[in-house]
Predict the structure of VOC domain-containing protein.
Amino acid sequence: MTDNRNRRRPINRPVFHHTTFATLKLDEMVEFYEAVAGLEPVYHGENGAWLTNDDANHRIALLALPDLEAPVNKGHTAGLHHTAFEYADFHLWLDNYERLAARGIRPFLNLDHGMTMSMYYQDPEGNGVEIQFDTFGDWKKSKEWMWASQEFSENPIGEYFDPEKLVEARNAGLDWEEIHQRTRAGEYVPAVLPEVHLPELW
């Protein structure tokens, strides 16, 4: 018999399909994910909802399970930090920020990681939600940069930024590449640097 103990990964790999959350706030969660990432319910019942924003039957499942308990110190315990959604370009990404800000939905953390510019929101259960765009516009190139770049190796978290300063820069006529370069240079740092931890909501 062939020894396959050292076969660390499958030859034919599955693709990521969905994430499931147990929730005490089903309707609020449905409303949040529809607002932030355009996820619409394929089915929304009393005990759960299955949401998608593309051709998949669902990308996020929400289960209102019986006897759930509220988490303790959720923002500072091991576990899932965030899920992420990606826009195709800078302008769609920043337009989404402005749309959400007008509704009072604002990110708690904003980082230019080099290969992405990312805003982190928090859903009604305290889970992180990243809205990003790939600054290379090509996953092969951004993956190569992450793998080979000394810059990423030395600072994988990236540079903090204030999204309102990005809006001002765009309104002043700067193109997105210059805004990205200036963000990486630390020109749009917020007055107060936030924690990378998820804020504790419970």
